[in-house]
Amino acid sequence: MQDEFVRDVFVRDVFVKDVFDYAGAIAGCAARDAEALRRLYDHASPYLLGVALRIVRDRQTAEDVLHDAFVKIWTAAGTYDGARGAARGWLFSIVRHEALNVVRGRLRLVTPDEDAAEAIDAEVSLAASAGRADAGETRVLMGRLNDCLDHLDEPRRNSLMFAYLDGCSHSEIAARLGAPLGSVKAWIRRGLQSLRECMQ
């Protein structure tokens, strides 16, 4: 998916509506307003760190990804075009792109565990989908993903949201849901598989 549509559906339909002016903050960055960058970082960095953490699965590496992503956001802010997609989606796309680059760079050195492989596969395949999609296609994909999410049972849906939005570890999700760790791992693995099959 262009990273945008998974995140947009999750935030829109599950979490309280986010009213922060992302587009205004990005415009401020394009005008080299350091205060705009600070506001954007203060508001968005917890979510963006969660996105990076879920992909790279290491806190320090995720923080490095976040740093690099904000450098890119600052330098590339002038290229953001609101007609091509939501400002928040643009931010998430940059973070996911940076994180996936890190993962690709170390795939030759490290074999990810089964759950990491599931997550990486989902991220890469969904990102590829969005790269091929124009704005109209993205809206269609968002609707399809929303429908697919609605068909997941609550444990799988909640586990995926905690993992991808909050960047929670499996242990943290188990604590939040009051469920066994093995169940959480299974819910995430099967939930990702169900979403991939549904989106095909």
Automatic annotation (TrEMBL):
Stretches assigned to the RNA polymerase sigma factor 70 region 4 type domain: 144-195
RNA polymerase sigma-70 region domain boundaries: 40-106
InterPro entries, alphabetized: RNA_pol_sigma-70-like, RNA_pol_sigma-70_dom, RNA_pol_sigma70_r2, RNA_pol_sigma70_r4_t2, RNA_pol_sigma_r2, RNA_pol_sigma_r3/r4-like, WH-like_DNA-bd_sf
GO BP term, pick one: DNA-templated transcription initiation
GO molecular function, one term: sigma factor activity
Keywords from the UniProt entry: Sigma factor, Transcription, Transcription regulation
Keyword Protease among record annotations: no
Pfam families: Sigma70_r2, Sigma70_r4_2
Cross-referenced NCBIfam families: sigma70-ECF (TIGR02937)
PANTHER family in UniProt: RNA POLYMERASE ECF-TYPE SIGMA FACTO, RNA POLYMERASE SIGMA FACTOR SIGZ
Family listed: Belongs to the sigma-70 factor family. ECF subfamily.
Name by which UniProt lists this protein: RNA polymerase sigma-70 factor (ECF subfamily)
